[in-house]
Amino acid sequence: MTPTRPRLLALIALVAGVVGWVLATVADSILARYLPVPWSAALAMWLLAAALLIWTLLARPRLLRRPGAEPMPPLTAARTAALALAASRVGAGVAGFYAGVAVVFIADLAVPAAQAGAWTSVTTALAGGAIVAVALWLEALCRIKDDDEDDEGAGPGVRGVPGSVTGGTERTSV
User: Of residues 67 and 170, which shows the higher confidence score?
Assistant: First the structure.
């Protein structure tokens, strides 16, 4: 897995923002009503952000191999890294979508329904941003540090592994 690039998250947020804006505009112009934005969406996203933060705080000492903390099993660490990658992308999509919807509501802030929709959209977009921030932190914690003293000068291969650059037998195509 490669680390998450901020450019990718920005692209996801931008595309989702355009989709949200288009859907809210279509609902406003064709259906003559605002796109419904429930408070349960904001609540659910903030609960997901809190759950991800709790997992990050609990996993941090284990991932960093702090004294007194039991090391995390490799499979659990890999699943945690996958969770971080998925959460950052979903958070960017949610943040972008609801920011796009909020832009449509902000144009009509004099209308009470638009005010409520704007607050809900902005709250949900902020929750998506919080998920991205926590997910990026968790992903950084899951990165494997280079072990320079064990394999110094080993190059790109791993010592003693067949087929690697520095040891074992080479594969040849027939």
Answer: 67
Task: Specify the number of domains making up the chain.
Answer: 1
pLDDT at residue 7 tops 90 = yes
Q: Is 148 or 52 the better-scoring residue by pLDDT?
A: 52
Q: Is 125 within 8 Å of 119 (Cβ atoms)?
A: no
Assess if residue 110 is contained within a domain. yes
In a domain, 61, yes or no: yes
Give the angle 157-162-164 at the CA atoms, nearest 5°. 20
Q: Flag whether 113 is in a domain.
A: yes
For residue 94, give its domain range: 7-142
Joined tokens for residue 102: 């909020």
d(CA 158, CA 58): 32
Residue 125 to residue 42: CA distance in whole angstroms = 8
Measured distance CA(172)–CA(174) in Å, rounded: 6
